[in-house]
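User: Last request for today: this protein with iron/sulfur cluster, please.
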Amino acid sequence: MAAVHVSGLHTAHSCTVAAQNNFAAEKARGRLSKTPCALSSSSSVSRGDWVWNSKSVKVESRKGLCSPVAAASSVSTASVGDAEHDGASSMEWLSPTSGNPMEEWLRRSEEREGDAWREECGVVAIFGDPEASRLCYLSLHALQHRGQEGAGIVTANENTLHAVTGMGLVSEVFNESKLKKLPGSSAIGHVRYATAGASVLKNVQPFVAGYRFGSLAVAHNGNLVNYSELRAKLEENGSIFNTSSDTEVILHLIAISKKRPFVARLVDACEQLEGAYSLVFLSEEKVVAVRDPHGFRPLVMGRKSNGAYVFASETCALDLIEAEYVREVQPGEMIVIDKNEGYSSSCLMPRVERKACIFEHIYFALPNSVVFGRSVYGSRYAYGQILAETAPVECDVVIAVPDSGVVAALGYADRAGVPFQQGLIRSHYVGRTFIEPSQKIRDFGVKLKLAPVAEVLKGKRVVVIDDSIVRGTTSIKIVRLLKEAGATEVHMRIASPPITGSCYYGVDTPSKEELISYRLNVEDTRKVLGANSLAFLPLERLRGMLGDEAPKFCDACFSGDYAVPPRDLTKLKEETMKPVQVIDEGFEGKIEATPEEALAAEQEALAAKKEASAGQAPAVVA
Ligand code: SF4
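Assistant: Here's the final one, the structure of the complex with iron/sulfur cluster:
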């Protein structure tokens, strides 16, 4: 096989060389039966812990060794750790309006995946605290609602980046011993829900790469709309990708940039990105926080009383670790905190109008957060009040679809002068998978999550508030649940305008053809849901509530006003999910490494052999 050159970004080859040498030692100890390699099948891989510096990488995983950017990962077809979709995706479908023309379409939607608009991701960065990894861990826990598929932390200590990533919740990925493997006073972290790229371990962030000037880690919240083009261009020029995530292109762009110094390289790379990105970077010396010029996704800055800097997607993360909120990272702003040069801020990108995602206030963010300078609780309460004004109805009780409908329901109840009651109880103990009983139970998936309270509902005219309707499949079940529990009337009020378009800026959405409000008007939607009445938050009232700031918010999924022209998301998804061609155990090619890397790998292999022959503990550590 011809030598492989990874343009600028030396990740793939250097880690592979080191990993293969580690393998020699591992094999000598009889711990492995399979060739580990950056290109090996991830079916042999689960979570990985690894240490990376510009010369070598050490990898530990539960079942095998692998490469760092793709640490414990290689193939988009991996089955280990793949997240499962929510909802009753295999449920039998029973339409409340049998024979309605939407029945077949709804059935197909139901079979495809659950009916939720998925959270995006959450990012955190800490600089200047000896407990950086622990603070990062706690902050990620506070941001868990933004992504539950995977989590990771990278720390910088003595010119080495240390990383732990894994599939699952923050509490599942990290424990005391994992945190001990993350020394250093600066750290970045990430919780992930896959908005671009498959749900496999290799796509769990932060990503780490080594290039000719050192090592760099990145964590990203958002979606790049020009990812396919950038990746195609980079691949044409010889870049090799380890993941199917759009974030990896950022590392490649930084690596090949001709600009100096380091910060100029970051700017150069970011200026080529289109779409949504709130990024945190970690190098041996620096933490950098950047927000895209439109500022689609949130990013805030805080300080601890000991002077440590904290960056996070939401203020709820600052609250948990007792950091004081300072301000937002401004759209298009790059903040650099350097060990030697301290704090600096620049705005080197072209200025465009801010387009903050209004859906953060509708659904994504926690109500106790302040996002884009506004209280999320205050926004949701106001949406409920507006609904009571614009769509009043005679009723006995106001209830919410928990949790995201609760605050709007309180606002509705307050303005309508009707008591708010807990008519639906949410189970907090539903795992990601649940075994369905052999005899089908209608609406099993929804019943697992939501239990109606007959005491509140029986014989009552009920107003039920939800945050949004996506495909409509869950709403149908909720209406049916309430009626079966004895509600005489069910009036549905939605604390957002009808969703008629997909999001291209970091939120996982179905294609617009799958959105019920794209296909049906409000009355026809009501009929399909089986509700006595249905009303949405009017878009003009939402904009009115935002006042002068309205043009600074993105509401494209309601209005179709996309600030950055969207690409074909369906196509993008198909491309990014395309199985990576894998060369498994038969790999015999030469992978080009720098002389330093080859030397480091040789030394490492030698040390490992010595250790193995001495019968000592394995050299693979994190
Ligand atoms: S399209 Fe919708 S979800 Fe996406 S950024 Fe705009 S408001 Fe947010």
